[in-house]
Amino acid sequence: DGGITQSPKYLFRKEGQNVTLSCEQNLNHDAMYWYRQDPGQGLRLIYYSQIVNDFQKGDIAEGYSVSREKKESFPLTVTSAQKNPTAFYLCASSIAEAARTGELFFGEGSRLTVL
Amino acid sequence: AQTVTQSQPEMSVQEAETVTLSCTYDTSESDYYLFWYKQPPSRQMILVIRQEAYKQQNATENRFSVNFQKAAKSFSLKISDSQLGDAAMYFCASMGPISSGSARQLTFGSGTQLTVLP
Question: How far apart are CA A26 and CA B114, in angstroms?
């Protein structure tokens, strides 16, 4: 089945450690996105990529990094510079045309907890 | 910049009844898009309905419809004949026009948790 796969679903990290969240899609979508979800705050955009080897910062990019070496993959690294990394992270994708209409396809998310 | 406000953190509705979720937004753009997304307990977000600002007719998708008041910058979601499967967090979202720097970036509200009572 086509879709977006995020892994791991749950991740625990010690302070000061970097961690990478995986996002893979087999929908042949050009655009991919990372959102952070905190209780009572909705979703906030971290990074997005419209094509391979290109990405732009979203509203809360500080402390995060991404890469887009392949069309189907858009991993997110949460670095030790991120002061409050405990959150639920959602990856999404869209075809170029769908980006005009806002229809994003989401993964099931990854919950990161910093101990 | 666009902002989206959902003033109802929680709502409940009796099964088979109708419920309306509120959303207001702020934008300086004349052309934009508005959406309602649903996040069930599985946490996977699903698009429920979309509205293009230049269209005066309110969008409908089966039991879901919107009341789009452009002058008031209001975009409410009405769910008719509520079903147990409608229980979820509902997010209102907006997107700027393609010509703007905010193109392809959705701005989300804080969400409304809907409970459906049997």
Answer: 32
Cβ of residue B44 closer than 8 Å to a chain A Cβ: yes
Q: Which residues pair with B47 in a beta bridge?
A: B37
- Quick one: pLDDT at residue B98? 59
B98 Cβ under 8 Å from any chain A Cβ: yes
CA distance B65 to A56: 34
Nearest residue to B36 via CA among B76, B84, B82: B76
DSSP A107: -
CA atoms of B91 and B89, how far apart (whole Å): 7
A45-80 tens-digit pLDDT: 999 998 899 999 988 999 999 999 999 999 999 998
